[in-house]
Design a protein that fits this description.
Layout (H helix, E strand, L loop, with lengths): L7 E5 L4 H12 L3 E6 L2 H15 L3 E5 L5 H15 L4 E4 L14 H29 L2 E5 L12 H21 L5 E7 L5 H14 L3 H12 L7 H11 L11 E4 L8
Parallel strand pairs: 1-2, 1-4, 2-3, 4-5, 5-6, 6-7
Helix pairs in contact: 1-2, 1-8, 3-4, 4-5, 6-7
Length: 260
């Protein structure tokens, strides 16, 4: 499948989990990839793996997106290396679990800087390139935007902010020919989420599998999602089949979100 042949995609948070799956899926569809994350050694390993598996050009650009100067330098380096930028997938930024009383100001400030502020910084720096390419942006948020969880309070507010940002950018991008959409993953079985299940199991004296079974029953879903489930939807939003979709937020959650 080569529908993205000739395109260059920046994928932030691309060293593992959802970001790595998105990068590999876009490469399999013909795109060259600029892979962005903070941890240089893991990022380089992931870039090498995707390059070998897809035969596409995949270049690692280590970057801490919390620093504006780093972002500007990174985007300039990507444009210089590839010649153009057609696709931006904003995926970076993990948050800590915890309720109002468990998380300090520093946790909130760091999370907003690594997620919302990073999305804005990278998007702003990429915008002139995407305007020339009449390109695409896909923002990765979370289903907590619809159903806030008091024990994941930072993540809940960030997910809602990503939804609002995506909707506003979709309208703003119309005049410049830039298409913006969003994807809200539900519970995706990444290494980070498996670690969370392990911690819950210790707390409840359950095994990871018991914790997983209880969680699925409570949420009324058949299974946890996989990173590939999210990657496939991102690829669909970048295809010609969805050219009339703009400003959409697609939940990839197995039906766990019951609200409108």
């Amino acid at each position: 499948m080569t529908e993205l042949a000739g395109k260059v995609a920046i994928v932030t948070g691309g060293s593992r989990g959802i970001g790595a799956a998105i990068a590999e899926t876009l490469a399999l569809r013909g795109a060259d990839i600029a892979l962005i994350a903070r941890t240089a050694d893991v990022l380089a390993e992931t870039a090498a793996h995707i390059g070998r598996h897809t035969s596409r050009r995949v270049v690692a650009f280590p970057c801490d997106l919390r620093e504006r100067a780093n972002v500007q330098t990174m985007v300039a380096a990507v444009a210089s290396a590839f010649g153009h930028i057609d696709i931006l997938v904003n995926n970076a930024g993990a948050t800590k679990h915890g309720n109002l009383l468990e998380r300090e100001d520093a946790d909130w400030l760091d999370a907003y800087d690594a997620k919302i502020h990073a999305f804005v910084r990278v998007t702003r720096a990429c915008w002139p390139h995407l305007k020339v390419a009449r390109g695409h942006i896909v923002n990765i948020g979370g289903v907590l935007a619809h159903a806030p969880n008091p024990n994941a309070l930072i993540g809940s507010t960030l997910a809602a902010a990503v939804t609002s940002l995506t909707k506003a950018l979709a309208e703003f991008g119309r005049a410049d020919g830039i298409t913006v959409n969003g994807v809200n993953p539900g519970l995706i079985e990444t290494d980070r989420f498996r670690q969370h299940l392990t911690e819950l199991g210790w707390r409840h004296d359950f095994s990871v599998e018991q914790e997983k079974a209880a969680l699925l029953q409570r949420l009324g879903i058949d299974r946890l999602g996989q990173a590939q489930d999210v990657a496939d939807v991102v690829a669909l939003l970048l295809s010609n089949q969805t050219a009339y979709i703009r400003g959409a937020i697609i939940d990839v959650d197995g039906g766990m979100t019951k609200s409108l």
